[in-house]
Amino acid sequence: MGFGRRSARVDEHRAADPAAVRAGALALLGRREYAGAELAAALVRKGYASAVVSEVVAELAGERLLDDVRYAESLVRQLAGRGQGPARIRQELLQAGIAAAQVAAALENGTDWHALAREVRSRKFGAAPPSGWPERARQMRFLQYRGFSNDHIGSCLGDAPGVPDSDP
After folding, report:
1. Number of structural domains, the chain?
2. Do 34 and 28 form a contact (C-beta atoms < 8 A)?
3. CATH code of 117's domain
4. Which pLDDT does position 158 carry in this prediction?
């Protein structure tokens, strides 16, 4: 006897019933926002017929109860609030089944990534710049892991294009 959470599978009579599939989809959507592909996969895992699931997901999208653009914008806000950069967020959105054009639009309309990289770096390492190369490399690896580009990392470490060096 395990204590893990098991998803209840539907019986074969309800698996092809559009009303039951819709009820299952609305129950999932009541908990959190889903991307269309993500919701369809969750319903199929529960045992619903994939043909009926496709129809119901299309209906929900037509009624705007399911919206990939809204989901993408919401996930960008949520993950940026946790201090994750655009590369990591892009990967999450693509895994959720969001189209590449919608991912690009959501990231474009997102936050100021340079400012977020500076904030994440200072929150983790303090306001003082890195003292030597080993510390600088450590901070760069941390920011890369968080999903920031080399441009974002350079700007928060003080070597952005257009920033004059202190050495002539």
Report:
1. 3
2. yes
3. 1.10.10.10
4. 77
Please write the tens of the pLDDT for every residue from 82-122. 999 999 999 999 999 999 999 999 999 878 999 999 999 99
**Could you tell me if 66 and 60 are in contact, meaning their C-beta atoms sit under 8 angstroms apart?**
yes
Report yes or no: 35 and 67 within 8 Å, Cβ to Cβ: no
Q: How far apart are the first and last CA of the chain?
A: 71
Q: What is the DSSP string of 11-78?
A: PHHHHT-HHHHHHHHHHHHHHS---HHHHHHHHHHHT--HHHHHHHHHHHHHTTSS-HHHHHHHHHHH
Write out the two tokens for 29.
């959507």
Q: Does residue 57 share a domain with residue 23?
A: yes
- The residue segments making up the domain with residue 95 are 68-108
Q: What is the pTM of this model?
A: 0.80
* H-helix or E-strand spanning residue 145: helix 133-146
Q: Is residue 3 part of a domain?
A: no
Nearest-angstrom CA–CA distance, 164 and 21: 61
- C-alpha span between 80 and 85 (Å, rounded): 6
Could you give the count of Cα atoms lying within 13 Å of 75 in the half-sphere of its Cβ? 28
On whether residue 7 sits in a domain, the answer given is: no
Q: Do 118 and 144 lie in a common domain?
A: yes
